């Protein structure tokens, strides 16, 4: 049987690189910043423009009506992001918008593709580093065409863990996040890091630079592409309570193996986050 999704996969790689080039160029010009859910949840004209370009290119290539889209910048206008069985592109045009605004050089284009509610592939282009991460279900994960694998560390004391503070400034939430970070530091782990983009953080797990990355409050477009990349690199993808990963839950734990994941999970205090699909 012909490989039905190879063409969309190749196209996603092509489009992510084009989008990254546009982002790099936009970073040299004046950046127009707006806010979304709160004063620290930033969006720029580039986020909106790049999403339109990506979706426009996919529609032109594959037809207007055959594919569905969940895109960060068009999501609010559409209401809850419901994943159906139809081929669906899940897009974060600029993951790491705060980084982009401040010139902190970790910004990624994240493009994932799901069919029958299952992720088929993910592409993450870290555009200032010029590194392209990609994975197709069952076919391994790659960075710039080189196969990548998670680290084989099982001893938590020899691990590096990534987490992020996110954009929620509710005092109780911030207190819980800080307390969780403190508990993880005191395990002790070698260190806690964060690139400011969930997509890139997941690629750091996938290529063995860190052992785990977890976050509560991320959205499906932040982690959909990274989810395929981590799993295809041999890692595990879970809910922050250790249960099965749910793309719409806004909770995600990715790790090199179950031992590391379970140890980090022990220290996570979970706080509520409204689901992406409104359920
Ligand atoms: O830059 P974004 O596309 O908005 O995604 C960010 C998110 O805003 C921030 O809250 C998270 O901590 C990051 O991990 C996301 O990638
Ligand atoms: Mg994002």
Automatic annotation (TrEMBL):
A cellular component term (GO) from this record? cytoplasm
UniProt EC number:
3.1.3.25
Which residues does Mg(2+) bind? 72, 92, 95, 222
* Keyword Hydrolase part of the UniProt annotation: yes
Pfam family, any one: Inositol_P
Highest taxon of the lineage:
Eukaryota
Family recorded in the similarity comment: Belongs to the inositol monophosphatase superfamily.
Give the protein name, as stated in the record.
Inositol-1-monophosphatase
* Lineage, broadest ranks: Eukaryota, Metazoa, Chordata, Craniata, Vertebrata
